[in-house]
Amino acid sequence: MRLVVVLIPAHDEEATLGELLARVERVRVSGCRLLSLVVDDGSGDGTAWVARERGAVVVRHPRNRGLGAAVRTGLRAAVRIGADAVAYLDADLEYFPEDIPALLEPVLAGRADYVLGSRFRGGGARRMRPHRLAGNLLFTGLLALLSRRLITDGQTGMRAFSREAAVRAEIIHDYNYAQVLTLDLLRKGFRMEEVPVRYRPRRHGESFIGWRYPLKVLPAIWRELRSP
User: Fold this and answer.
1) 3-state SS track over the chain
2) Which of 74, 129, 173, 178 could disulfide-link to 7, CB 3.0 to 4.6 Å?
3) Rounded to 10 degrees, what is the CA torsion of 180, 184, 185, 186?
4) Nearest C-alpha neighbor of 190 from the set 220, 167, 210
């Protein structure tokens, strides 16, 4: 039986994490055992306690380091645990853990090493707030141009990795991971697919994405393109 690590980075997500982990527990993927791994990125609430109560493996940053750093830590931990594949999703319940089997299918079937769960293909993009939709379209278009690939949702918070992709993934930016991770894996020759996933706007807490996002992400994209 193959081991799938469900990677969930979380910063102050006590309000949603319990429900998310409970729903992950009910997900079934044929021939696989699912193990939840929560990276608590310096939360000031009960995020780590909730994760442990639901039986998740918890890796904790003593201070908030950023989503990119949390995903980097999580992928390394998943590899150490012995994951055959990794399913990643945000902790804020914007995405549906019930879509994990479809997300993993290209990886488990051997067709892809890296899978993006597309809100645009799944019809959820129409529920995005206007400013988030505009920013997503802009950065997705830039990512598609730089990678020379058809990509519909470059900022998705639901992804899957083969073990080899998780081993070789490099995230050069602590603030975020989305664009630099995709560029990194594609430049290394990993096969990518997109699958439709559902989406709804978050009901609790606040997203880290704000006016500083382009100021932090664009220099990171440039660094990634200039790296060997």
Assistant:
1) CEEEEEEEEECCCHHHHHHHHHHHHCCCCCCEEEEEEEEEECCCCCHHHHHHHCCCEEEEECCCCCHHHHHHHHHHHHHHHCCCEEEEECCCCCECHHHHHHHHHHHHCCCCCEEEEECCCCCHHHHCCHHHHHHHHHHHHHHHHHHCCCCCCCCCCEEEEEHHHHHHCCCCCCCCCHHHHHHHHHHCCCCEEEEECCECCCCCCCCCCCCCHHHHHHHHHHHHHHCC
2) 74
3) 100
4) 167
Polymer length in residues for the chain: 228
Nearest to 119 by CA among 108, 129, 107, 106: 129
The answer for residues whose C-beta is within 8 angstroms of residue 1's C-beta and 6 or more apart is 31, 32, 33
- Whether the pTM exceeds 0.85: the reply is yes
* Per-residue confidence in pLDDT tens, the chain, 228 aa: 999 999 999 999 999 999 999 999 999 999 999 999 999 999 999 999 999 999 999 999 999 999 999 999 999 999 999 999 999 999 999 999 999 999 999 999 999 999 999 998 877 666 666 767 777 778 788 888 888 899 999 999 999 999 999 999 999 988 889 899 999 999 999 999 999 999 998 675 555 555 566 766 777 677 777 777
Strand 2-10, strand 32-41: pairing: parallel
CA terminus-to-terminus distance, the chain:
37
